[in-house]
Structure formats: structure tokens, C-alpha cells
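Q: Second attempt. The first request was missing the SMILES, so the protein and flavin mononucleotide are both included now.
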Amino acid sequence: MVDPERFRDVMARHAAGVTVVTTAHPSGYHGVTVTAFCPLSLEPPLVLVCIGREQQSHRLLEEATGWVVNLLAREQEFLAEQFAGRAPLADPRFSRIPHHLGLLGIPRIDGCLAWIECRPWARYDGGDHSIFVGEVVALDLGPADDPLIYFDRQYRELAW
Ligand SMILES: Cc1cc2nc3c(=O)[nH]c(=O)nc-3n(C[C@H](O)[C@H](O)[C@H](O)COP(=O)(O)O)c2cc1C
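A: Got both inputs this time. The predicted holo structure:
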């Protein structure tokens, strides 16, 4: 038997870059903080994100015609907290969050390390999560250089 607390403690030892996955829905724009992001394939260009089945964003991604993975910069910790629901989201429609709309009309957050815009490719069962695979339709580097890292339940920065 795997003890759930032990499982969490061990997984907290996995250092991960922090992303915000954005999408557009008739009810408005949406973003969710995600560390379960992984580049998957170059030909065709695919990436994946894993989203908990209970999350609002799970339903939104199931229905979405596209989504953007925004790789957060060190100084964007407040965005990670905001999109994890831990800080009040004063404006869910993004009017106070600097962004530009991408090819698919989805917000690309300004000031990130990079952004990756995807169309849905596949969704796989992952227990209490789903694995959403996206085909990359556009991507580019942003102005930032230093990543926001999540390790041992805390935000960190790289020690160069
Ligand atoms: C650092 C960090 C990383 C997270 N990574 C994920 C993740 O990879 N997948 C996920 O489903 N939720 C993840 N979460 C939790 C969601 O961001 C959080 O549950 C959010 O409130 C869900 O919002 P929603 O119900 O609007 O989708 C993470 C939270 C934090 C703080």
C-alpha cells in the first residue's frame, strides 16, 4: 500500500517549473497554475499537462478549442498564487493581467519566460487526473530569463 502522505512528501522532492495554463471559454478567460507540464514530441510538436478531474479547469479544457502554457518567470509568483486560487482573483477576465491574445484568441501572459499555444490533440485517463495532450500551433520566448521553480511546497529560484 502506498501511504498518500508519503506519496505527497516524495513528489514534493520533484523540482518543477511553474506554468499557468490559460484558455478561453464563452464565460470568460480562465487560467490555472500547473507544474505537471511536459514537452512530449517534436514531430509532431506535442506537449502535455495533467489536470485534476475535480478542477473547474478540467471541464474547461475538455471543452476548449485550444490552450496556452505560460512558463512563469521568477517574479511572477503572485500569478502562480492567483491562478491556484490562493489569492483573490479580483478580475477573472484578465483585464488587470497584462496579456495578448494569441492565434486562437487565448491569453498569452506578458512577461513570461515563454508561451506555447496548443490545439487539443488527445486526452488520456490518469487516475484522478487527466492527461491533456496539445499540438503546438505557435510558441515563442518571452522577455524573462529566470524561471519560477516549485520545490518542497515552496517557490524557489535558481541559484546560479
Ligand atoms: C505550484 C502549484 C502547482 C500546481 N500544479 C497543478 C497541476 O499540475 N495540475 C493540477 O490539476 N492542479 C495543480 N495545482 C492546483 C491548481 O492550480 C488549483 O487547484 C486551482 O485552484 C484549480 O483551479 P480551477 O478549479 O479553477 O481549475 C497546482 C497548484 C500550485 C500552487
